[in-house]
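Name: SIR2-like domain-containing protein
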Amino acid sequence: MTQASIEQIMDKIRSGEVVPYLGPGVLFDACNRSSGEPMPADSDSLILAMNKGRPMAPKLMYEFPRAAMNLELKRGRRFIEQFLTRLYKAEDWSRAALHDWIKSVAPPYVIDINRDLQLQQSYSGTPHYLVRGLARIGGTDYRFTINRYDGERYVPIGPEELKDDLPILFKPLGSPEPTASFIASDADFVDYLTELMGGFGVPSFLKSYRKEKQYLFLGMRFVRDTERMVMSDITYDAASPAGWALIKQPTPKEIRYCNKKNIEIIEMDVSDFLEKTAIPVSSHAML
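Structure predicted for SIR2-like domain-containing protein:
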């Protein structure tokens, strides 16, 4: 990726033609301010954090939703929600450099499959809409919640009130604020993905707004089926080509998948990208 092509993509991100899609790798430099431990974000690190640092059986270590389902059956759904809330809300994390980049660029639409609060904090001084995934909740036809942030607090709104007059933050797998809501266990994903495919997991406005968008996949790997299914449904009706994925050492499986989805792989990681956009990474994690 040349400097000129990066600048072109940056211009399209600012205009909303290209949508940043954030995976676990964007949090590579976020650390606990007291211990220096990296923020758990990918599947393995989340499983270890959930199980007090102990590996689980190999079949459970395969993917976080599987491990979360196992502990949910033993300890209840509330245990998973409390773990993720404590992890991402109660603990004190340093800022990820990528989120400083997001704050400086201020895209009008961002998709973030992480469950932390850094994206919302990047827009904390800016009114915006927050769309989050929802699973296994009765009394509603939808598998999402929408809140409008007025600069001070979040207020729940209906699907018909979502517009493009403010930035839209879409966190399909949830977050701890304004109230804790997460897609985590296998049972959550079965329900959420079923409703995504049925058209009830994305607000009607976003179904129209996302048409012919391109995507820049940052910190996202395409080796796990669950994350690939979420991505495929969230980015439905993308332009052709669908965009770019920053993957420094793609696997054959990722190359085949991205070719199938018409996504160009750029062999660099998030830190390489940030260097090219003049956002420093070194010494950032503990600031």
